[in-house]
Amino acid sequence: MYYLDHRSDVVRIPPERLGAQLEGVLTELAQQQFEGKLVDGQNLTVIIRDVKPVGEGHIIHGDGGVYQEVEYQALLFRPEIQEVVEGAVVEIRKFGAFVRFGPLDGLLHVSQIMDDRVNIDEHNQRLVGVETKRDLKVGYKARARVVSLSLSEISPRDSRIGLTMRQPGLGRLEWIQDAHKKTEEKSGKKPAKKEAAKPASSAKPTPAAAPAPPAEKAA
Could you tell me the sign of the dihedral formed by the alpha carbons of 92, 93, 97, 100, in that order? Predict the structure, then answer.
């Protein structure tokens, strides 16, 4: 899940960069220092912007650089247990498939891909269900759920994230669409047949009988 956060930190400006435009230098150095790093052990900093200096910089004895406090906007990414994510298959291995969602990769173990025994074709980067013949290849889009999570502060891209697709509404996107179609076909009712309108009778209506003449009065 993505978050936009207002943060503050300190950036070191090396001596050789002190003569350049301050805000431009601070933005470049802050991006190098913070992007791609974990914050608070659980948020991955994806992008930072609007870097602004706060007050005056400080010089530490024995260090020729200037330490400048800055404020900035940070786009953070934080995966969570039980979160449903969508991504693309980026690698097939003997033990499963790696799916990239956002800036991180998660592992789909072969036991968590489908309710079927899976054959692994690592050479062609392909996984195939023995009975269903459903396949999963590099580049295919998939929806999965995060079931285990261990982020690495040293190298966030090497974090261990476990995924599963063996739940309703998960799997390769084409599988999900097929399941929806089958459900609609089973639950849908066939439209009732309309009865043909009966044609109007061609018989002419019987004319009403003429009234009898009044009886004559007796003399």
Answer: negative
**Domains of the chain, earliest start first:** 2-55+65-77 (3.30.1490.120), 84-180 (2.40.50.140)
Whether the predicted pLDDT of 82 surpasses 90: yes
CA pair distance 72, 5, nearest whole angstrom: 8
pLDDT in tens, 117-152: 999 988 888 999 999 999 999 999 999 999 999 999
pTM: 0.74
Which residue pairs, CB below 8 angstroms and at least 24 apart, start in 112-120? 112/147, 112/162, 112/163, 112/164, 112/165, 112/166, 113/165, 113/166, 114/165, 114/166, 114/171, 115/166, 120/92, 120/94
Mode of pairing for the β-strands spanning 84-93 and 126-129: unpaired
Q: Report whether 139 contacts 126 (CB < 8 A).
A: no
Given a contact cutoff of 8 angstroms between Cβ atoms, the answer to whether 49 and 72 are in contact is yes
Pick from 132, 26, 41: nearest CA to 78: 41
